[in-house]
Amino acid sequence: MAQADYSLDQTDDQPVLRLRGDWTVAGLPAAERRSQGLTAAAGPRPVRVDASELTALDTAGALLLVQRWLGGMPWPEFEGLRPADGELLNLVGERIAAPRVRQRKPSGIQPMLERTGAAVEFAWRQFTLLLGFGGQTLITILAIVAGRQRLRWTSAVHHMERAGLDAVPIVCLLSFLVGAVVAFLGATVLADFGAQVFTVELVSFSFMREFGVLLTAIMIAGRSGSAYTAEIGMMRAREEIDAIRALGLDPLELLVIPRLLALLVMLPVLSFLAVLSGILGGALVGGTELGISPGLFLARMQETAELRHLLVGLSKAPLFAVIIALVGCLEGLKVQASAESVGRHTTSSVVQSIFLVILVDAIAAIFFMELGW
User: Which of 16, 39, 64, 97 has its Cα between 20 and 30 A from that of 5?
Assistant: First the structure.
């Protein structure tokens, strides 16, 4: 390989640039050191370039030539230049000489509207996907009921243990603490009116109608819903779901229905335990801080609380279970073959589940209030 070299000669008072050697990345260092300080604007501009001894040219060499001698218009006349090298020089020259157009910075309202439109489109697309997935799941359930497909009881019981029994300590502890906080804050406000005894109604009504099932659903969405997405997502990334289809089996039957059944059974049970734990937390605060003995607390609760409040709260548990299971499984099935995709869809699963649970709970609360329940 011949190192790149050049000479700038005067012929009839016309500068001639003579190029020799390989003007490539490997052969450029010597020529680049010699030409330091020269620029096409300030240095001598040749009127002719002799490239008959130029043996090789790449983008690095073309860039050095343009920056040192060829910048600006018109370009000098070339002799002995191969057509391919000429095209490369023209391309680099066009890119270097192309004027930089300053992009006009959009106003603040335009990006906001664009992001809002993209968010609305994404939400609608997710909603339609969830409805379609729910329809496919319902068809699979009907096929199981009709006997054309089978229910995997072993898998369902396994998920009942993981999503239900294993979640009992954290659900009960969280509800107990929230019940204690609600009782303490409620008594603090009611004390100004001398009505601390109404703390019993505050705790019992709030947990039977709202807090018990809502806290449980949010906890299960973050715990079991994310686990569903991660498990199915890793199966998707390892192409295990494709293998299931290749064996002639239905992934919905094997993966989705057992998880859905597990939540349908266990979420009402966990919600009931959460109600008991929250009331116990309120009773503990009432007995230690408010002077309401456990006997008085239970007697007051028996007088004022009605069974319909508990039934209204527990009636929302199956709906929350369907939402959490469908969202978690759907996001898992959307995972691509990468760990980054698993993490992104797991986060999306938790966010969507919690948002939908709270939204449905608010709609249900208004619905039951309008009915007088």
Answer: 97
